[in-house]
Amino acid sequence: MRVPVLAYHAVNISGNDYASNDPRAFAADLRLIDDLGLRIVPLHWVVDQLLGRANRDLERCVALTCDDGSNFDFEDIEHPTHGRQRSLHHCLTDFIAERGKDAQPDLHLTSFVIASPEARAHIDRGCLAGRGWMDDAWWPAAQDTGLIAIENHSWDHNHAAVPLPGIDGMPRGSFLSVDNRARARAEIAAASDFINARIAPQRTTLFCYPFSHVPDYVHDEYLPRFGEEHGMLAAMGDGAEPVHPDSDRWNLPRYICGWHWKSPEALRQILLG
């Protein structure tokens, strides 16, 4: 098993070409992956394989993820500067309509969402356009499509746009400040509880580190020791290599669009490599 996991941020829209628009890149990458004869599979299949919970053939496979849980993941939105934007969900359905269900029968996207409604509102006002682009009304509908899984991207991202004080007095702007059980419980277990209530009877089992910051306490202590509290099976970082049998389950690697690749040609090299 050597499965590249690709990550996108659907709010990354500063233009309408590949390099400046993650949804446009996502749509193009679906076709590139298919053209290369690779198979898109759910991220939880990769985790199940790593943990010995399943035995599937994952040769020549790719998994897709997106972070932060903006409405751009699921809904087409009129961007005030760059016009109508196709959601990641509709990029998936467009691909199915174009190439047929049999082209990628296991097509799937994992969306890591921020749980706190208050934090999402502050991020929407402070970093986006203040138009309500980070609500949670779409989560159950997305989960019900069978094409998208809703997973855990923390309670509030400990984001700088969220006013002080942070949880347990944490300084804002870095997830590395999550250095004790109280802070970890508030950021991870509380997020799981909130998300689970919204997507029931489904449950979140995968965590993604905000900012790709991996605190020693969370990695070494909280995630491995307090599974009954938080319910996570694995956690995603960056790492820029495929997930393989020796990967660290509490810091699984991903390639991030706009950072690890910025063009179809660069992604082609990653996938062929």
From TrEMBL:
Question: Where on the tree of life does the source sit, at the highest rank?
Answer: Bacteria
Q: Taxonomically, what lineage is the organism?
A: Bacteria, Pseudomonadati, Pseudomonadota, Gammaproteobacteria, Lysobacterales
InterPro entries in UniProt: Glyco_hydro/deAcase_b/a-brl, NODB_dom, Polysacch_Deacetylase
**Name of the protein described by the UniProt record:** Polysaccharide deacetylase
Please name the GO terms that the record assigns under molecular function. hydrolase activity, acting on carbon-nitrogen (but not peptide) bonds
This protein's UniProt keywords: Signal
Q: Which residues form the NodB homology domain?
A: 60-220
Q: Which residues cross the membrane?
A: none
What are the record's GO terms for cellular component? Answer: extracellular region
